[in-house]
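debug: dumping io for the single-chain case to check the tokenizer round-trip. Nothing else runs in this session.
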Amino acid sequence: MSDHHLHLSGQRFSVEYDIHGSGEDAQRRAAILCIDQTVEAADHVIPAGVIRDELLGHVVGIDRVSDGIHRAVLTFPVELLDGTIGTLLHMSFGMAGLRYGVRLTNLAIPDGALARMAGPRFGSPGLRALLEVPARPLVCAVLKPLGWSPQALADLAYDFALGEVDLIKDDQSLGDHPFCPFAERVTRCAESIARASRQTGKRCLYAPHLSGPWPTLLDRASLAQHAGAGALLLCPGLVGFDTLSSMARLPFPSLPLLAHPDFQGSHYVNPASGIAPTVLFGLFPRLAGADISIYPTFGLDFPVSEEDCRNIGRACRSRLGPCPPIFPSAAGRMGASRIDEMLALYGTDVLFVLGSDLRRDPTRIRTACQEFIRLLEARVVS
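debug: decoded output
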């Protein structure tokens, strides 16, 4: 059969993989990736002409990174992308993700193809304008633990908002449990935060956690915005990156989106396989439409290094076609003792997700939040 109906522009996007093994192994496995990531067919099935010459991946370089690790750069036609993040995931790592010793480390996509993806609705500049916080890092508090009643969580949200934090998010464990129904929790928390904001004169965005299949998730998002929520929290590992993209494109609800890494750990914990944190927590959430990417910081019991966090920050802020920059995060038992090292790593365009230490004295929650923010403001001024 003829492939004369294929008219490719010649424009290509590039994907970088770290391949474990010898140089000979890297050459062989890169050649397999060129086929597996496109037609995924036996060689005798691939016809001569455009499919074989242009549609398949091309290896443009293989360089030794260290003993037993080589970095391969492959390119693919932009026509294989359709503007959805799901297709990008498939094209960059679909079949490669089934193999051991192959790790996705970076992508470079032409501006025209980037423009077809959702991208963030607000980005860090839009969030700063919305919150009227022009310079210092943003601060987010977390509603937990699972098992509390809607009113107990609303009371905690009230204290956090009196502490003048910028955002308050549900913990990712909060769903639609019989002891804490979604609608009641969101309504009570939004009302408490609005009441506190009227007292402080400071805007605070509440981000309830959205979960469930698409029709249910959309209904919950609409309910949340009608109830007064100012943002939404989604776990792309649970609901899908394309769900995040759809939320970023809808005319309503039209709220800032926070991406949480729940269920994504198996993609990055093995350094010999999977997806590098730079891509998983930086590039993919940004392309999918997140305004904030949440992930564990270095120095905890997660396999994330300081260099990983630095690279995630760059992926969140570096030029990316029409996509505005988004906020990376400093999250995971975060307290005042880590402010300086987080600022040294990220600068001021970062979201601090407050840890539970600030709640050791329940009578001082609002004061502890205010003191944390004052410390940040002092560092930015100095």
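debug: round-trip ok. The chain has a mean pLDDT of 96.
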